[in-house]
């Protein structure tokens, strides 16, 4: 199987995780990296042995020695490079959220169909063994079809200063929207959302630190989603997530903050995440690596992805947009309707 030749656009914190994970795969070769910072480019190129250091996204997507472009820029900068990469014959991985606008998500989907290339959303939790095991249990008699779902996601408060640039529904809750859609196996009919801001000023008030959303699916399943940036920084808990899926024949449940690895020392307790992206004996491990392995396999074999779905991602952006509108207006939003703000 030939290696998939990769170009990475964006070398922020998560873009560097992409570079690290791709570089550890035997099925991929990072051909070029692109970023607006010359210092960041030079440092990353030296560390991972990448010779082609590019400052222009247009130059990156036009190269003829790249099979896959990984778009890891700010949310508002996803559309243009994605469209240009597809039009130039590249497959594309777009990090989550693929965009914050439903019309842009649909434009990406249409461009992929027109180009005949594969377009992957960066919904990596479908490659976390725990969430994937729940999906398998939903499809079997172990849990069965969901009747109700509860999904919670909480992050340390200091991160809000960076990620308040977009509504909490797009930065945190989008993961759980995707999981709920995956488990339910159908589309969302209506949403009702509630947001509360602790920092009541400027962008912070537009992006609540605490967000709840009630979802009703077309098949009658219910989901309650809770996202917040309120885990105290001093708690030492990087990820405080939980899920419970009540099916017709059983229940699936797990919670992250009180299980797994912990360090106790003079600075307090630290519960690091080892499931998303970590290093083991010099190699990348975690569900990011599993996602990238799967994407490379699909490209090498010429197979359409079945584990991840850009159609689901488009619907997820539609649901997220409805949640943001419900949060702002205090009204229930039916997905077939349009609410003007």
TrEMBL record:
Domain annotation GFO/IDH/MocA-like oxidoreductase: ranges: 133-251
Positions of the Gfo/Idh/MocA-like oxidoreductase N-terminal domain: 4-123
GO molecular function: nucleotide binding
InterPro entries, sorted: Gfo/Idh/MocA-like_OxRdtase_N, Gfo/Idh/MocA_Oxidoreductases, GFO_IDH_MocA-like_dom, NAD(P)-bd_dom_sf
Designated name of the protein: Putative dehydrogenase
């Amino acid at each position: 199987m030939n290696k998939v030749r990769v170009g990475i656009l964006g070398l922020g914190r998560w873009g560097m995780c992409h570079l690290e994970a791709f570089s550890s795969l035997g099925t991929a070769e990072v051909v070029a990296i692109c970023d607006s910072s010359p210092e960041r480019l030079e440092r990353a190129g030296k560390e991972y042995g990448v010779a082609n250091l590019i400052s222009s996204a247009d130059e990156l997507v036009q190269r003829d020695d790249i099979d896959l472009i990984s778009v890891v820029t700010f949310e508002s900068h996803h559309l243009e490079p994605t469209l240009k990469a597809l039009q130039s014959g590249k497959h594309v991985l777009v990090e989550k959220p693929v965009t914050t606008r439903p019309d842009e998500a649909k434009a990406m989907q249409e461009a992929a169909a027109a180009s005949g290339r594969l377009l992957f959303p960066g919904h990596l939790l479908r490659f976390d063994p725990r969430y994937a095991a729940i999906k398998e249990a939903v499809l079997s008699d172990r849990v069965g079809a969901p009747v109700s779902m509860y999904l919670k996601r909480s992050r340390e408060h200091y991160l809000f200063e960076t990620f308040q640039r977009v509504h909490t529904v797009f930065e945190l809750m989008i993961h759980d929207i995707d999981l709920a859609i995956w488990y339910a196996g159908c589309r969302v009919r209506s949403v009702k959302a509630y947001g509360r801001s602790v920092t009541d000023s400027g962008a912070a008030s537009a992006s609540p630190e605490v967000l709840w959303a009630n979802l009703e699916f077309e098949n009658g399943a219910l989901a309650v989603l809770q996202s917040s940036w309120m885990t105290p920084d001093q708690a030492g808990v990087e990820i405080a997530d939980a899920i419970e899926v009540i099916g017709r024949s059983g229940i699936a449940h797990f919670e992250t903050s009180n299980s797994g690895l912990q360090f106790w020392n003079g600075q307090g307790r630290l519960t690091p995440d080892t499931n998303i992206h970590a290093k083991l004996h010099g190699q990348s491990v975690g569900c990011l690596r599993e996602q990238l392995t799967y994407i490379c396999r699909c490209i090498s074999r010429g197979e359409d992805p079945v584990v991840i779905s850009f159609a689901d991602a488009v619907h997820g952006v539609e649901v997220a947009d409805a949640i943001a509108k419900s949060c702002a207006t205090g009204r229930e939003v039916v997905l077939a309707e349009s609410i003007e703000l």
